[in-house]
Design goal:
By secondary structure, the chain is mostly helical. Helices cover 73% and strands 0% of the residues. The longest helix is centred in the first third of the chain and has 23 residues, at 3-25. The chain starts with a helix and ends in a 7-residue tail after the last helix.
């Protein structure tokens, strides 16, 4: 579809498409996703429309189809509301929860290497490849992260 025609259609029909999707889903996040999908399909459509009414009817049909597809999706049936999820993971021991909170208080660059090394069990070399760092930089970040944790927790840590 030609860019100017697409922009005109998007401005003219976006509220209509949004209202239909909102009616189906009952929440604005899913409705916004559906609007994006509908207008992506319009943009990539190799179809010419006879009139504005023909375009309007096509958009309504595509919106309904997109909404139904999403509602039938197996991913949709398995999801859990964010309100139902706990703020932080549930741990077996209180010490694990305390350690988690301290790790989350570290700067992101330290949290990332700790998570990849200890929880995902990646080697220093693999972490370096994933993050685009030299192995010496990964080792340094691990050392500094452990030192900060030791200082924050006030415990004696034994590195392996």
């Amino acid at each position: 579809m030609e860019r100017t025609l697409f922009e005109h259609a998007a401005v003219r029909y976006q509220n209509m498409v949004y209202r239909i999707a909102l009616h189906y889903f009952g929440n604005s996040q899913d409705a916004e996703d559906a609007v994006q999908e509908v207008f992506l399909r319009l943009y990539t459509a190799e179809k010419s429309f006879e009139s504005p009414e023909h375009l309007r009817r096509w958009l309504i049909r595509v919106t309904v189809n997109v909404c139904r597809d999403v509602l039938r999706s197996p991913w949709r049936r398995r999801r859990v509301s964010l309100e139902e999820l706990p703020e932080e993971p549930v741990f077996d021991q209180p010490e694990q929860a305390a350690l988690y909170r301290e790790i989350m208080a570290l700067p992101e660059k330290y949290r990332t290497v700790l998570n990849l090394f200890y929880y995902e069990e990646l080697s220093v070399k693999e972490i370096g490849e994933l993050l685009g760092l030299r192995t010496s930089a990964v080792t340094t970040r691990l050392h500094r992260a452990r030192a900060r944790l030791k200082e924050q927790l006030g415990e004696v840590w034994q590195d392996e």
